[in-house]
Amino acid sequence: MSLRTISALAAVLLIGAPVGLSRQVPSSRAPAAPTFYLVVETRTCDPDDIKISGASNLPSGALILLQVSDFDEDGWKDYSDPIYISLKENGLFEEIVHPKAGQKFHRNLMAQAYFSPVYVPPKRSQPASVLKIVGTKGQHLGGLDNPQVGQLSGNNYYLWTLARVPNCGER
Description:
By secondary structure, this protein is an alpha+beta fold. The chain has helices at residues 3-24, 128-134, and strands at 38-46, 49-56, 63-72, 75-78, 83-86, 92-97, 109-115, 149-151, 157-165. It is built from two helices and nine strands, in the order H-E-E-E-E-E-E-E-H-E-E.
């Protein structure tokens, strides 16, 4: 190799090294979620109670509906009454859900989590601070490009997710 080739190669390595290294240095900030999300999982299950945990980047105080259901042909059979809980400041929620009177939980049920600005229990509403961010009709939830967003009648949007309840006290 000639001296000129070695010099040119060294120059390329010296110039390219900082660029390559800068791409490998991780950012000190976590990437922001492009839309709102809602996740849920079941922690424990017995025939008389299921512990449901979840997380969301919705504003704190958002009312989240939890319900345990099973598939019933083209619809759902509800095994619990709907429970509304407030999303904590840290973006987490957890609740123990009990079956409806006269029913027991069994394996392969579904834990559903649902957020809607308009579908809330009687005499309650989403906090004004939540509606200011997500919109009074959910129009800022990410639209139908967000795979968790659904559309009710009109232009009312919601977030919905579910998790399988794998085992429930069976041995």
